[in-house]
Design a protein that fits this description.
Radius of gyration: 14 Å
Family: Belongs to the methylglyoxal synthase family.
Distance between the termini: 25 Å
Shape: globular
Largest sheet: 5 strands, parallel
Strand content: 5-15%
Number of helices: 7
Helix content: 40-55%
Enzyme class: lyase
Order of helices and strands: EHHEHEHEHEHH
Number of strands: 5
Strand order of the largest sheet: 3-2-1-4-5
Protein name: Methylglyoxal synthase
GO molecular function: methylglyoxal synthase activity
Catalytic activity: dihydroxyacetone phosphate = methylglyoxal + phosphate
């Protein structure tokens, strides 16, 4: 079981919902997290249970980023809208930076998301189990 987060900017929420519907069977059985509205929309259209954090602009990106910083997140699907300025752009940049620091796979478009989900379905994320097994104890 892996920890997976869904984040989508407003103009990408429908795309995210359709994507999760298409791969609902892959996501079922994993621990799922999301920013507020995105998670609500996914749950309205699927049978998946999602732990919802705050909306992105209200700190939800940072809450997911805190999980990444603790190495408690295995995959993030973050459908960004590259054509629309976001008021919380510094939070978005910080989340992407901490994913790079911790080596957490993050998809920012549907093409990359599909590749990562197919890898998840094939079992290619087994290396993350080793990360969790040998994770140092928190102070």
């Amino acid at each position: 079981m892996f920890n997976i987060a869904f984040i989508a900017h407003d103009r990408k929420k429908d795309e995210m919902v359709n994507f999760v519907i298409a791969y609902e069977n892959v996501f079922d059985g994993h621990q799922l997290y999301s920013t507020g509205t995105t998670g609500m929309r996914i749950m309205e259209h699927t049978q998946l249970k999602i732990h919802r954090y705050l909306s992105g602009p209200l700190g939800g990106d940072q809450q997911i980023g805190a999980m990444v910083a603790q190495n408690d997140m295995d995959l993030i699907i973050f459908l960004r809208d590259p054509l629309m300025a976001q008021p919380h752009e510094p939070d978005i940049s910080a989340l992407l930076r901490i994913c790079d620091v911790q080596g957490i796979p993050v998809a920012t478009n549907i093409a990359t998301a599909e590749i990562l989900v197919k890898a998840l379905d094939r079992g290619d994320f087994a290396w993350r189990e080793l990360v969790h097994k040998y994770k140092p104890e928190q102070l």
